[in-house]
Amino acid sequence: MDCTTIVRGGSVVTRDGTEPADVAVLDGQIVAVERELELTAAEEIDASGLLVLPGVVDAHVHFNEPGRADWEGFARGSAAVAAGGGTCFIDMPLNAHPPTVDALAFDAKLAAALGSSLTDFAFWGGLVRTNLGDLVDLAARGVVGFKAFMCPSGIDDFAYADDATLREGMARAAELDLPVAVHAEDAELTQRLAAVATGTGWRDFVASRPVEAELEAIERAIAIAEETGCSLHIVHVSSGRGIRLVAEAKSRGIDVTCETCPHYLVFTEDDLDELGAVGKCAPPLRPLAERDELWAELAAGSIDLLASDHSPAPAAMKTGDDFFATWGGISGCQSLLAALLPEAKRRGVALAKLVNGLTAAPAERFKLPGKGRLEPGYDADFNLVDLETPGPLRADELQYRHRHSPYVDRLPHARVRRTVLRGETIWLGGHRVGAPAGRLVRPTGVR
Q1: Are 353 and 14 in contact (CB under 8 A)?
Q2: Going by C-beta distance under 8 Å and a sequence separation of 6 or more, which residues neighbour residue 18?
Q3: How far is residue 170's CA from residue 427's CA, in Å, rounded to a whole number?
């Protein structure tokens, strides 16, 4: 026996494109990616007619454990990640309770994830006014960076960071060689517009969080990052203008990246007429022209990575006539890859470019060793995907604790046939396989 597993006959997607190749695995790592490998293996997987993709790395999820596992939890959330072709996720510091803002909270979250998560995982630490002295301990525990809100987060125990907090936090993060990620919406503008809203429908909510609030916050975050020398990441950018602000800052030598999410790429604000609060998020869904601009920026290579911003809640929190009062978060990690592949194909966006934004780019941005590539020496994390016969996502296919999502019955999804983590199949034929074996992935090269 030359190796543990060989995947034969598939079309392998690499950083350079797509080509027929076999993938050989030994002891949980990829050892060869070549055409017609003359090797033997204990297990051979037939990937004929399927794409073989690196495992998706979802850099932005809220699994809400410990403390709010009734909203999702690591077991159900990681199963959804695996069902969508994912092999690693990075969990945000909120809406866990307590949030991940100190060493004790990190330890509690790690204890909850170990033995529960089907996939590998990493953690963001929080950045709030009261935990500036805890950033060193969080870095020592292995967080990939620190997340801050520039407007109220919607969670009482995770306060937003004013400019003074952000400046001090970024300075300390720079010393630790870790990035700061920001939710970029201007607090003063959004609160003022919400206060003068004359109604409570979705149009009133969307009007209270305009693109201008996002742009103002992005500009301010970039200025503070430049001042402090901090590496900056802007999460869930919803507008082409926001992406271009990041691109312009990069051209000036500032270390800044950005992500967008599938819901901004496949839905528009007009879909809220039908979706209601299931489609509520912040920043909100945008007009058609903004969606098309995001696709143009993605095709141009200006969007660094793609993430789901999976933010679930019980159904009771997603109903009601007051759009301001309902929970603002979209359940979407299971659709991150599956919904974007058919849409990218329809729009003529290069498959390798899209896949890079879901796999190698987040792994490299957040220094996750062994993740994100189908190359020798990397973890044998991959999925087998049928892109030729996409179909609608059904509610009974959802792995979430609460089976509501704007993607259900609305968009064609590629079909993830198998997901493999470190050489072991964890998802096959619509079902999870084996016991949870997810590990914490710590960033490399951090001071």
Answers
A1: no
A2: 11, 12, 51, 351, 352
A3: 39
Task: List, for residues 149-164, the tens digit of each pLDDT value.
Answer: 999 999 999 999 999 9
Rounded Cα gap, residues 134 and 138, in angstroms? 6
Give CA–CA dist 132/129, Å, rounded.
Answer: 7
CATH class, range 3-52+377-389+414-432: mainly beta
The ranges of the chain annotated as CATH 2.30.40.10 are 3-52+377-389+414-432
Token duo for residue 3: 């190796």
Q: What is the CATH number of domain 55-365?
A: 3.20.20.140
| Counts for the chain of helices (H) and strands (E), in that order | 14, 18
Element (H or E) spanning 376, and its range?
none
Residues of the chain with CATH 3.20.20.140: 55-365
Query: What is the distance between the alpha carbons of residues 359 and 304, in angstroms, rounded to a whole number?
Result: 11
* pTM for this predicted structure: 0.98
- 21 by Cβ neighbours in 10 Å (0-12 / 13-18 / 19+) ranks as buried
Tell me: the pLDDT tens digits for 384-419?
999 999 999 999 999 999 999 999 999 999 999 999
